[in-house]
Amino acid sequence: MGVLSAFSQKQLVVADLETELPVAQVSVQGMSHAVLTDSLGRFTLTDSVRTLVFSHVNYESRIVNMDEVGGDTIYIISKLLNLKEVVVFGKGMVEDERLKELNKRLRMERKEAQLAAADPSKPAGISLDVLTKLLPKKWRPGYKKAMRKKRHEDILREY
Fold this sequence. Notes:
The chain is α+β, with helices and mostly antiparallel strands and 159 residues long. The mean pLDDT is 77. It has helices at residues 93-118, 128-134, 143-158; strands spanning 9-16, 27-29, 34-36, 42-46, 51-56, 59-65, 73-76. The strands form 2 sheets. Strands 3-2-5-6 form a 4-stranded antiparallel sheet, with no helix packed on it. A 3-stranded mixed sheet has the order 4-1-7, with no helix packed on it.
C-alpha cells in the first residue's frame, strides 16, 4: 500500500487594485509551476505553495507570501495611468479664418504685382510689406544702406 498524499486546492482571483475588476492572462509562478489566470482572473493552487510571483505586461510585478493573504483576491497595481476624464482644448476657427484670409490677400497682391509688371499703364495696388516679401533681399529698399552701416559698425568694433 502506497502513501497517499492529498493536498487541498484553493481558487484565487487576481484583480486590478483601482477598478477591482479581474485581470486575465496574469502569469502566476510558484516554485515548481506556472499558470495563467483565465478570462475571469481565476487560478487554482495547492495549499503547499507558500510564495507566488504575479506578472503582467500592463501591471507591476508582485511577490506574495500566501500566509499573508487573507481573502480569495490578490490585487495588482496598473502601470498605466488611468484618467477619469480628459478635456481637450484646440484652436478655434478664428485663428484658421485669419490665416486663410491672410493667404488669400497675399495671393491677390501677388497677382496684382504680376499684372502691373505685365501692363505698366495700370497702377499697382501692392503694399510695401508684400513687396519686401516678394523681392530678393539685395533688391529691397534700404538693403545696401543697412549693409554699409553694419560693415562700419563691425570695423569700429574691431578697432
